[in-house]
Amino acid sequence: MTDLKKTYNEELVPKLQKDLGVKNPMALPRLQKVVLNMGVKGAVADKKLIEKMAVALGQVSGQKPKVTRAKKAIASFKLRQGDAIGLVVTLRGKRMYAFVDRMISIVLPRLKDFRGVKRTSFDARGNYTLGLHEYSVFPEIDPASVDRLQGMEIVFVMNAKDKKEGFALLEAMGMPFAKEAQKH
Q: What is the pLDDT of residues 135-152, one digit of tens each?
């Protein structure tokens, strides 16, 4: 496994400068943080579920997740204000680059019927959101310990000006985008 930050600084900066037509390397898009988010279905009924998923998300991210709580009470979901409903982890620095490298080189190729990630999941500011149907594709998770499917959302937050810059950065880092826009 290579050091993605070193690769970015030594190889990707000159390539991105040429591709985007930017003279100042400080004006190039950079990865600022990666946010892992997991809404835990059934957490209201089973309080132990949050703890179990927190351990799993901690193994995947390498740091302790923060429990997210309901802002409003919703009677039809039997949800009270303040109930634990999810988990979130924000990765920066070395952990962020290590996670992105692991994500691109190990996790995505392990997905069943993987043909590349969607090109359309960028927001107007160039940030990219990737959803996984199950967290068990990470090598840190023991498949025998998984008793229920649990999805997660991964947000790559960048200082890109637009979708084009965000796409150029992730593509240069090795994100395996689908050959053409996927039709669902």
A: 777 878 777 777 777 888
CA distances 76 to 14, 69, 80, Å, are: 54, 17, 10
- pLDDT, tens only, 36-93: 998 877 766 777 888 888 888 888 888 999 988 878 787 777 777 877 778 899 999 8
Residue 81's contacts (CB-CB under 8 Å, 6 or more residues apart) are 70, 71, 72, 73
Claim: this prediction has a pTM higher than 0.90: no
The pLDDT tens digits for 93-118 are 888 988 888 888 888 888 777 888 88
For residues 152 and 177, what is the distance between their CA atoms, to the nearest angstrom? 19
pLDDT, averaged across the chain: 82
Alpha-carbon distance 88 to 36, whole Å? Answer: 6
Taking the C-alpha atoms of residue 184 and residue 172, their distance in angstroms, rounded to an integer, is 26
* Residue 50: C-alpha distances to residues 34, 45, 74, 78 (Å): 21, 10, 19, 17
Amino acid at 22: V
